[in-house]
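look at this fold:
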Amino acid sequence: MRHVLQFSKYQGLGNDFLLLDGRSLGDPEDAFGLTPERVRRLCDRRFGVGADGVILALPPQEGGELRMRIFNADGTEPEMCGNGIRCLARFLADSDGDVAPRRWQVETLAGRIVPALAEDGRIRVDMGAPFLTPETIPTALDVGEEGLPVGLLEVLGQPLAVAAAGMGNPHAVVPVDDVAAIDLESLGAALEVHEAFPARTNVHFVEVIAPDHLVMRVWERGAGPTLACGTGACATLVACHLLGLADRQARLDLPGGPLEIHWDEASGHVFMTGPAEAVFDGVVAPSLLEDVAEAPVALEVTPPAPVETEPSAAQSGLDCATLCVNGCLRPEACASADARARVTALLEGRSLDDLVALAGESLESRTRGRLCRDESAHP
């Protein structure tokens, strides 16, 4: 079957993502039909659309306003992404016509995250409290007197003084004298998979210009060198503060531009403020996804064992998008059968040209709304 995949591309400090809106779909993950290989194709900068990742806006499952899933360019699924959630918030505001002040309760694998639209158009995100114990990051480094895991690691024969912090995903922070002189390609790739980080790690080399001004370079787990990393900037500020190198509030310069990070002493939460901008809207050619294997592959999610004592999938609240990625666990009482049937009827009842036209009308409506917003902000 030829699927039409509508997307919007957004970037935050050059960290770019493809946004897919599945909030109104009954079984959005099944309708999108994403697999790790398809994500890699979409993110390929020569043969696909090109992006650092793919973000799905989905119906909530735990009382939030919506749920976010994000996939790296290599098809793996991280717990969170700071630049990604800023792009998601800007996308939601553009799609729904929201204006400041507006905040969203977003469910992520790292817990509930709350981005807010500011009057100046930037996005301020309450990233929650940092994780500073080895088991929560996770890391094999021991907690030092500074109050976070630290250690001297040998990477490609070079000793590196590393601090670890978590923002729902793991981060290794390495203070250096000259961040521009670091061989990011070699050291970042090696430190990402170092045995001290059992779930791999994002890597950040940081140079302290002043206690309120840091410069950093980013190697993202599953993506490689990127122009920005929001969770990484938060973890870097936390680590540098505990190491006695930075204040609780600072400007962090990344290759794509600056972020303002504030580790609030009263709440213990880290707040990130930065831009997110629309790039373009589009529709993926069906052939891009048809050329890859159709068999679904688990997107780095380990399903728990099914509970045999429950009578049916519908009664148990079975999350088919997470648990049934390798095949339906309960075909005799499939909770998503009706939703899949509706999607199939929609696709089979319309021609490819009709679906492209519908997507085009939606994209035009969103674009007009965005232009009106920009004209109002800059008369």
